[in-house]
Amino acid sequence: MEHKNLDYWKRAALAFQFEGRSLIDGELAPIDEVRAFVDRSPVDGRTLAVVGECSELEVNAAVSAARRSFSAGVWSGLNPRARKAVLLRWAALIRANLDELALLETLDSGKPIRDTLSVDVPGAAYCIEWFAEAIDKVGGEIVPADNHLVGMVLREAVGVVAAVVPWNFPLLMAAWKLAPALAAGNSVVLKPSEKSPLTAIRVAALAIEAGLPPGVLNVVTGSGDTGHLLATHDDVDCIAFTGSTNVGRSILRCAAESNLKRVWLELGGKSPNIVLADCPDLARAAKAAAAAIFYNMGEMCTAGSRLLVQNSIKDEFIAALLAEARAYEPGDPLDPATSMGAIIDETQLDRVERYIEQGKREARLLTGGTRERESTGGLYLSPTIFDVSDPSCTIAREEIFGPVLSVLGFDTLDEAIELANGTEYGLAAAVWTSDLTTAHEASRRLRAGTVWVNCYDEGGDMNFPFGGYKQSGNGRDKSLHALEKYTELKSVLVRLR
Ligand code: NAP
Ligand code: MG
């Protein structure tokens, strides 16, 4: 077998055929050259593809195709076992095309090839398999009622689902929406981010190859304007969104002003990672704290961007953390040895750099803060850590969505919990302690959708619902609870006499 080193992936990248057309009603849609945009790679700035910017006409065509296929019952009307078979074939095709999809994701988004090969692509396939395997095992309910009634509660597909997803995990976030929505029998219009649209187009083509009827899964490419058209559309029954809190707010508003479509939001975070002095393993905690903020260039909604360390161990812990941060010096994303890749685009890099400048004014820079590898034409930042004494300062409050960590000290657990919860977000939190009671009590007091104890970012299993408290959103992805987003409950009462 050929050794898949940097040269191998570079050669494969040169040979790649990129597809930037939308997929509507089973066909690749022609690109309107006037409205099209260029998709560049953050790896080295090269042009990957010309991508269509879908207009109202194309969004309407995609929604109509979804509605037609839904009403015709070509998918929604199948025995769940039949949907399962198609979804499993689709997942198998994704696995069979692992190298191609991982390379595409890496080129389009700057993520290290090591991660797209091990997390993004297999994670997407696993998610599709999981919901495929679940869907012929979940039924409705027969509920207690008058003796002369049969009371049934049916769970039915909601209809046409719009999924609008971000660029940090383009394929995986799409899979988290598509798998439960399609398994439940819905028809879907997917809008990937303009910064990373290519894997969405490719996997939708694979879905059709697997036997998904045309119109059941459509991909409309374009900017936020295309997403806005879906949010305001009167024939979209439900919109599932992952992205920023501001856009989430706008989608809620659009739903209120149009057809009151169901809105499900997975938004940002400023997640606290609390290390108490009785932490069972400081070395492991330091490694996890670095991964919590530097994995995926910090472009993580669950990034452990606020590290709260008990003051009695703070200096010792920071020393260990600084050593661990060195493992994340950015490298070529196509090199399998690289653990930190490129920042998605110039706009995001500028934004992160503005936060770093702000941080230098309000906190103490411990490491990083510099642009790296500029000669490559790509967009890279060194892992950056600030020692923060004032928790109300900007970098300790706002989501940066980059490799920038704020370290804060505290004396008591009560103080740590207050700091941890003192944010508008509530996506995730972690606590490190050897004390069983502290672990359980802290888990209960932390206002977040996920709490990790003595670990961070654990959760590869589909069984854990994922989503936010407070302004981190509503509803849950993953687990059987995700089906609640994409189904309606119907009470059917049959009077016998
Ligand atoms: P974003 O700007 O909100 O974009 C997310 C998606 O919405 C993209 O497809 C975007 O299209 C589209 N969009 C932009 N404006 C829109 C509008 N007015 N109406 C409808 N759709 C619109 O977020 P991002 O900057 O790409 O992603 C970073 C954010 O996502 C962070 O805040 C992060 O915390 C959050 N995030 C959350 C989770 C989670 O599960 N909770 C996971 C990942 C990321 P374009 O990109 O083409 O403009
Ligand atoms: Mg791109």
Question: Which whole number gives the mean pLDDT?
Answer: 97
Distance between the termini: 72 Å
Q: Could you tell me the number of beta strands? A: 21
Proportion of strand residues? 15-25%
Architecture (CATH level 2) name of the largest domain: 3-Layer(aba) Sandwich
Q: If you compute it from the alpha carbons, what radius of gyration comes out, rounded to the nearest whole angstrom?
A: 23 Å
Strand order of the largest sheet: 14-17-18-13-12-19-20
CATH class category label of the largest domain: Alpha Beta
Globally, the shape reads: globular
Uncertain residue ranges = none
Helix and strand content put the structural class at alpha/beta
In short:
Helix content is 38%, strand content 19%. By secondary structure, the chain is an alpha/beta fold. Helix 3 (80-96) packs antiparallel against helix 5.
Describe this protein's structure.
The protein is an alpha/beta fold. It folds into two domains: 6-267, Aldehyde Dehydrogenase, Chain A, domain 1; 272-461, Aldehyde Dehydrogenase, Chain A, domain 2 (3-Layer(aba) Sandwich). The chain is built from 15 helices and 21 strands. The chain has helices at residues 6-14, 56-72, 80-96, 98-109, 113-135, 170-183, 198-209, 224-232, 245-257, 282-294, 314-325, 346-362, 394-397, 413-421, 436-445; strands at 23-24, 27-28, 37-40, 47-51, 141-142, 149-157, 160-164, 187-191, 217-219, 238-242, 262-266, 272-275, 306-310, 364-367, 371-372, 380-381, 384-387, 404-410, 428-432, 450-453, 487-495. The strands form six sheets. Strands 14-17-18-13-12-19-20 form a seven-stranded mixed beta sheet, sandwiched between helices. Strand 8 (187-191), helix 7 and strand 9 (217-219) form a beta-alpha-beta unit. The longest helix is centred in the N-terminal third of the chain and has 23 residues, at 113-135. The chain is globular and about 75 Å long. The mean pLDDT is 97. It binds NADP nicotinamide-adenine-dinucleotide phosphate (NAP) and magnesium ion (MG). Magnesium ion binds at residues 39, 108, 195-196.
